[in-house]
Amino acid sequence: MSLKELGDVSYFRLNNEINRPVNGQIPLHKDQEALQAFFKENVFPNTMQFDSMVDKINYLVEENYIEKEFLEQYSPEFIEKLAQFLKDQNFQFKSFMAAYKFHQQYALKTNDGAYYLESMEDRVFFNALYFAEGNEQLALDLANEMIHLRYQPATPSFLNAGRARRGELVSCFLLQVTDDMNSIGRSINSALQLSRIGGGVGISLSNLREAGAPIKGYEGAASGVVPVMKLFEDSFSYSNQLGQRQGAGVVYLDVFHPDIIAFLSTKKENADEKVRVKTLSLGVTIPDKFYELARNNEDMYLFSPYSVELEYGVPFSYIDITEKYDELVANPNIRKSKIKARDLETEISKLQQESGYPYVINIDTVNRHNPVDGKIIMSNLCSEILQVQTPSKINDSQEYVKMGTDVSCNLGSTNIVNLMKSPDFGRSVRTMTRALTYVTDHSHISAVPSIEVGNERAHSIGLGAMGLHSYLAQNLIEYGSKTAVEFTNIYFMLLNYWTLVESNNIARERKTTFHHFEKSAYADGTYFEKYITGTYQPSSDKVKKLFEGIFIPSGQDWADLRDKVMTDGLYHQNRLAVAPNGSISYINDVSASIHPITQRIEERQEKKIGKIYYPAAGLATETIPFYKSAYDMDMRKVIDVYAAATEHVDQGLSLTLFLRSELPKALYEWKTENKQTTRDLSILRNYAYNKGIKSIYYVRTFTDDGEEVGANQCESCVI
């Protein structure tokens, strides 16, 4: 037998029986039966067997499945010790979906796809050895975190670590285009290269001159951003990793760009094929001024990036629109046009209803809370990466006259359910920080020099979280309640504290800080002012009990950390980011990211297989009332939870809004009819803005016929 000759198996049928209530009860035991059947019928008979770990490693190296270089950093005795340690942990998958997802997507298989070459313990084994880079204690610590599902590297890292034939370890990239043909051409080449490597690519088009703008020295006028969007879409479609996955990209535009209406129209279902973009994602960067103009029902001026750059000497993205708005309006040298702010707000809401796009980046909020020197102008394909960039200048030979900085991001996630059980919360987070540091240190994207330089200077990482709803439900806490918000606040404060501690330790060891550390709010100590007050402590009895036995830093602890950081610096420019992790959360048997679940028994359509059902982790008679679907929840509760985390996260969080097309008017006090309207979305976006939310990812709408509009597409961050 092999994986290609499975014949009649029972595990899919058993899994499907979960969706058939018996006497009004969910037969959850059927999932365990499916799990046991999956190992008996699929995994055990089709896993290649070896006499020892040494024999296995020798085979995998000789057959070019696993690299040998990272293994040679360890003694054979330690390799056996680590393998035995992992075996002794007696790891068990808790659900059929977890086991199925791991073996389908992550386990190494023979070249013909007929046999498994790895178990979960093996994948963790190679990850730990790879990311520890010869440090035996760190390898043991990493293995301990991963096998107990406290730490989960993002898919590119977890999947590729140690493999001889692999893609990059990083998750996604951010590029900016400046207003000249050389930059456009170089960026298209960069998009092709990055999509080939793997990971989603975010591109800012805000600096490009609008349709109809003059081109110096030529008759005629510019074509604007839409044709450039089409070029990028075609590039991603072509560069698709040999057909293994669709290339994925998002383009961002400032709402004060004259092409904003045309930009949004490319996603409309009735858009002309010449301009319609089908696979490219859209995002808008929104300065504070837009909210003010829309609130006051005023006209808004759209400014020509070309004339703004001529006047101010910097690309349009780097102008503070909110600060300069009146000045730009009054300046006769700035080409401008006028629309109604509320008309644009309605257009954004209409498109979010129809497609889930655009993503929203509250760019002034982002920069107001940015502790490092420089300006953030855009985000990535999942809206959680927010890092400073600088523009490049490129000559006619496609050489960099001035090297700017762009962004690559590597992600990992804490599992809240399991990290809260860690014997040493701080040590766990410090260990995770070390694993992510390996990825940034060894990421060299030479095909795109601006990304390579940006990474070398910033050493940025993105540690996040998954399983918040699972943790709250299993502790009988309502998602979005005061207790839930308080817990979220303290949890992310701890992630912030311990990643700062370890970044400072690494800076001290290496005598190296991120570029321009001395210009940051960390260096002058102002970043720590709110923490030194000592106010970030659990206050309710419930939350105090949840954090019992876990060290909570006092104001003095924060003051001591401030002094160390001011003395020795930080290694990482950025440390925290919460991605919308999807499939990888199944392996961890928790809810995805920090948003609520959408179904108690989730139904997933798997290619060639049909439907697979996944009961929410910890679902039981006692917890059912606390597993409320996001679609039945007041989205302001979700925003409140994200706002509590945002306070401590130096980058962003992928916040998805979940709404029904038939929206019960009892859910929101302003509703007069049971139907989702553009007003609902406008109110929720403004609520999020006023709560300090940095970004909104998808708006997902559950329709009457059971379809979801606005489904996730970015696999690198999502899984």
Automatic annotation (TrEMBL):
Q: Report domain Ribonucleotide reductase large subunit positions.
A: 558-580
Task: Please name the PANTHER family in this protein's record.
Answer: RIBONUCLEOSIDE-DIPHOSPHATE REDUCTASE 2 SUBUNIT ALPHA (PTHR11573:SF30), RIBONUCLEOSIDE-DIPHOSPHATE REDUCTASE LARGE CHAIN (PTHR11573)
Q: Which reaction does it catalyse?
A: a 2'-deoxyribonucleoside 5'-diphosphate + [thioredoxin]-disulfide + H2O = a ribonucleoside 5'-diphosphate + [thioredoxin]-dithiol
* GO terms for biological process, alphabetical: deoxyribonucleotide biosynthetic process
Q: What is the source species?
A: Streptococcus minor
Transmembrane regions = none
* Top EC class, one word: oxidoreductase
Q: Which domain of life is it from?
A: Bacteria
Name recorded for this polypeptide: Ribonucleoside-diphosphate reductase
Q: Which Pfam families match?
A: Ribonuc_red_lgC (PF02867), Ribonuc_red_lgN (PF00317), RNR_N (PF08343)
| Keyword tRNA processing attached | no
* Statement: the UniProt record of this protein carries the keyword ATP-binding: yes
Q: What's this chain's function?
A: Provides the precursors necessary for DNA synthesis. Catalyzes the biosynthesis of deoxyribonucleotides from the corresponding ribonucleotides.
Among InterPro entries, the record links this protein to: NrdE_NrdA_C, RNR_1b_NrdE, RNR_lg_C, RNR_lsu_N, RNR_N, RNR_R1-su_N, Rrm1
Q: EC number(s) for this protein?
A: 1.17.4.1
Q: Which PROSITE patterns match?
A: RIBORED_LARGE
- Record-stated family: Belongs to the ribonucleoside diphosphate reductase large chain family.
A GO CC term attached to the entry: ribonucleoside-diphosphate reductase complex
What is the gene called? nrdE
Which key words are in the record? Allosteric enzyme, ATP-binding, Deoxyribonucleotide synthesis, Disulfide bond, Nucleotide-binding, Oxidoreductase
GO MF term list: ATP binding; ribonucleoside-diphosphate reductase activity, thioredoxin disulfide as acceptor
